[in-house]
Amino acid sequence: MNTKQADEPLGIFFASWAVKKAGRVPGNIPIWVGILSELTEFGIFFTAYFIAKFYYPEVFATGPQSLNTTIGVMNTIVLLSSSYFMAKAMASIRVDNLKKCERFLWLAFICGCTYLCLKTWEFHWNDLQGYSTSTNEFFTVYYYMTFNHFLHVGWAACAILWVIFRLRKGAYSAKENSGLEALAVYWHMIDLMWILIFPLLYVLR
Amino acid sequence: MKLIGKLEYYLFALISITLLNTFLGENFQSTAVVSVLVALTVMYKGFVVIDHFMELKGAHRYLRLMMKTYFFIFPSLIILTVFY
Known about the structure:
The complex is a heterodimer of chains A (205) and B (84). Chain A is mostly helical and 205 residues long.
């Protein structure tokens, strides 16, 4: 699907939702369909968390104390930094600074990989402590939520590599960068999900 | 240059809030005050990322509304857990 097709109105929404009236859509429409799906998926996880916490308050009060908070904090800082680098990459492409844009994309990619390494180490650390998906209800929710998020960071990191490849091929410029922007909004969405996951699993007792 | 300065300021604010929340969680049992503080700061973090990193401020108003509503509802549920 080319960018022109992706930006064409679908004709299934209210007229007030049209780009002319409501404002421009960052990236393209397909990526927002994807983001809506992801928000729904994570919304179900968060709802499951609150329901489980209602039925098992003691397990959820002690659960966060069993986790490695340091890794959780490090991962939060790494993901926030990756979002910052992605925003800087977008700012660079808007002034046609391709080299700077690529540099920031690599930094965002490195942050993504760092997150994956830290998370893998955290899962291993949990395993050494004897925690698994079946330890209790808290850990079931914890693994369900964090492993799913881990997968999202994994494939979005692969998408960064693809965008870097396309950038080098000259696909993006100050005038045309919707593909890059689509990746950027998706990456920020993943960061947003972690912003919610972190306090629920690591901070609140 | 001004925009770049803003992005760095927001990154610093987001990291500071993360550290503050962790400090609260580690040093205080989850009292009502801590839960409300954490919920409000998570809401603020979400709004900052939506408006300034995702750049929805000034973009499609309904997409921005949808994202902000999402980041209003779930942190609000944290406050609801106080009454469990």
